[in-house]
Amino acid sequence: MGATLDALHRLQRFEMELLALRKKVEAKRRAVRGSENRLKQIDATIAAKEAQLKRDQAEADRVELDRKTREAEIARLREALNRTKTNKEYSAILTQLNTDKADAAKLEEHVLAMFGVVDEGKAAIGALSESRVKEAKRTETFVAEAARFEASVRDEIEAVEAKRRAAAAELPPSALRIFERVSEKHDGEAMAQALQVDPRREAFVCDGCHMSLTLEQINALRGRDEIQICGTCGRILFLDEPVASMKPLN
Ligand SMILES: [Zn+2]
């Protein structure tokens, strides 16, 4: 393997290491954002429930006031009933009194129903406030965990970045540009092995996309230290894994 392909292999390895580390950091940050979003949702629900509670409370107060007015009217009619002189007057006041009593009974029902609605609203807000406390604690935990993790991998990331820069510096600028373009397209997997599909035949496929490669490409890989690109997926091809860039066996 020539110097260019060798440097590309190292670049690939550090690129993948960096991506894996950054993905872990991003996962921790995502957990923080998820918890923050849940908090926001709970706050919005609490605000909506509080606005509704205000309206329900106002309705309950209004109906209760109506009921009291009606009760005062009933008391006034009762006194008037005692002072009546004629049967006709008595019967008219009695009719009014019965109508008012029926109205007052309906208002009483409405008041009780509204008090029930208000109590339910208060209970729901209470439960949501408890959920909010729990979620806020969770957010705190996630924030601390993300900060702790980022601090723990900061040195590692910097070290791999330095290695990546060193490998990149060994490459001709054109090779580096190709690598970076393909790496961006394939999530860091810029390189793919040319695999021989049948040991008895000179037939190779790209390990990245599993499409056939031409023999010219294989011969070029064998003979020259130059970049060969898979015609289908665009990955940079290599024949054999170099010993230096192989992952250690666990
Ligand atoms: Zn391919």
Question: What does the secondary structure layout of this molecule look like, with pairings?
Answer:
Elements: H1 3-82, H2 87-169, H3 173-185, E1 191-196, E2 204-206, H4 215-223, E3 236-238
Parallel strand pairs: 1-3
Antiparallel strand pairs: 1-2
Helix pairs in contact: 1-2, 1-3
Taking the sheet with the most strands, its summary is: 3 strands, mixed
Bound molecules: zinc ion
Oligomer: single chain
The top-level CATH class of the largest domain is Mainly Alpha
Q: Average pLDDT, to the nearest integer?
A: 92
Query: Could you tell me the radius of gyration in angstroms?
Result: 40 Å
Number of helices: 4
Return the domain count: 2
The CATH topology assignment of the largest domain is Helix Hairpins
The portion of residues forming beta strands comes to under 5%
Which CATH-level-2 architecture of the largest domain? Orthogonal Bundle
Helical content class: over 70%
The secondary structure category is mainly alpha
Order of helices and strands: HHHEEHE
Kindly report how far apart the N and C termini lie: 25 Å
> Low-confidence stretches at least 5 residues in length (pLDDT < 50)?
243-250
What does this protein look like?
This protein is mainly alpha-helical. It folds into 2 domains: 3-169, Orthogonal Bundle (Helix Hairpins); 173-244, no CATH class. It has 4 helices and 3 strands, in the order H-H-H-E-E-H-E. The chain has helices at residues 3-82, 87-169, 173-185, 215-223; strands spanning 191-196, 204-206, 236-238. It has a 3-stranded mixed β-sheet with strand order 2-1-3. Strand 1 and strand 2 form a beta hairpin. Helix 1 (3-82) runs antiparallel to helix 2 (87-169) and helix 1 (3-82) packs parallel to helix 3. The longest helix is centred in the middle third of the chain and has 83 residues, at 87-169. The chain binds zinc ion. Residues 192, 206, 208-209, 211, 230, 232-233, 235 line the site of zinc ion.
